[in-house]
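# nightly structure sweep
# worker-07 picked up a monomer target from the shared queue
# config: single-sequence mode, recycle default, output format = structure tokens
# input follows
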Amino acid sequence: MARLIQPYQLAKDSSGDKAKMSKVGSKVVAQGKAVQILKKLKLFQDLSDDEYIKVLGMCSSVSVQKGEMLFRQRDEGKSLFILLHGEINIHVEGKGIVHTMQAGDILGEMALVCKIKRTGSAVVAKNSVLLQLYAEILHEVVNQHPRIGYIIMRNVSAYLAERLLQNNKTVKPLRKKEAK
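# output follows
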């Protein structure tokens, strides 16, 4: 059974937990991989190079092992995750695995725009490294850097609208109206 990773556990490095959380100033940024991935994501398009660095300063790095649970369906959504490396399966009760997230994918983006419960569980399929951005931290930074907040929120809205349009194309009507 997958083990749920609690936010307070992520902050503990010496407890023996496999998940570790650290400010992104360490090797992820030193390798430059995180900035390159952020630049490819629609969520962060139109930011300047300096703004990418500020966004990374808002994030934490999370490493999780196969079988661990990042979050559970119906948990309160407080942050989004950007998958840098690995695979995460999204499970929905009664449906099973509905999607497999890969490097460059974003999980939990709705947490940035509204307080909503998680619509699925995220279980690590392959050892993974993610960036985590808490909505609370983003909202604080928006006061200091309104341009960053505006761009991210505009892009989140466009991303969610695009997903809604895609879902609308795949949804079948409950019943067709009979021609009279």
